Amino acid sequence: MSEAIDLKELPHQFLLKKYAINKNALSKDTKQLIADLEKTIRLVAINSKKKGNINLTPATQQKISTYDRYICEGIYDYIEDEEKEDNIIELEDDMQDKREVVEDKMEDAHNEAVDQSDLSENAQEEATKENKTEEKNFKDVIIEDKDNKFQGGNLEGVSKDNIKDNSVEVKKETILEPEPKKDDDIVLGFWDFK
C-alpha cells in the first residue's frame, strides 16, 4: 500500500499558477532550470520510494531552493517583459492615435488652404473678368475731352484716373478695333525693317 504524499507547492509553481503562465513561454534558461529542478525532485522521490521515507540532505535542500529562486527570477523577468510589451503596445497605440489626430488636423488645414486658394482664384478670375470688361468698355468708347476727341481705342494721354475724376466724359459706343500690325513691319530701336 502506498501512501499519497501531498508535496508542498514550490514558489515557482505558485507563481506559474497565479499569473497563468505556461512553462513554454519562459526563457530557455528558465526552462532548463525547471527541467533540472524536476529531475532533482524525481531523483529524491525515487530514493524515497526505495528507503520508504523522504530524507533531504542540506545540500539537496540548498540545490532545490537555489533552482527555485532562479526560476522565480526568470518568471518575474518574464512578467516584467510582458508588462513592458503591454506598455509599449499601449504607447504605440497612443502614438498612433496622436498621429491620426495630427494627420486629421493637417488634412483639415490643407483643405482650408485649398478652399481659400479656390476662393482667391475665383476672386482673381472675377477681377480678371472685370478688368477685361473694363478694357473692352474702354476700347468701345469715345472719350470726349473739352478740347480733343480720341477715337478707335487710341487713348494716349488719357488715364483711368482722369476718367474717374470726371475731367473726361465717357460715352459708350461700339467702334471697330484698329488693325493689328503686320509681321512685315518690325521696328527695332530706331530702324524700320520691312
Brief synopsis:
This protein is mainly alpha-helical and 194 residues long.
The helix tally amounts to 4
Strand percentage lies at: 5-15%
Give the overall shape.
rod-shaped
Structural class estimated from helices and strands: mainly alpha
What is the first-to-last residue Cα distance? 134 Å
Strand order of the largest sheet: 2-1-3
Q: Which consecutive residue ranges, at least 5 long each, have pLDDT under 50? A: 1-6, 142-154, 164-174
Which range best describes the helical content: under 10%, 10-25%, 25-40%, 40-55%, 55-70% or over 70%? 55-70%
Q: Would you list the SSEs in sequence order as H and E? A: HHHEEHEEE
The whole-angstrom Rg is: 49 Å
User: How many individual β-strands?
Assistant: 5
What does this structure look like?
The radius of gyration is 49 Å and the shape is rod-shaped. By secondary structure, the chain is mainly alpha-helical. A hairpin with a 4-residue loop joins β1 (141-144) and β2. Strands 2-1-3 form a three-stranded antiparallel beta sheet. It is 61% helix and 8% strand. The chain has helices spanning 11-18, 28-51, 58-139, 160-164, and strands at residues 141-144, 149-150, 169-172, 186-188, 191-193. α1 packs parallel to α3. Among the domains are: 11-104, no CATH class; 140-177, no CATH class.
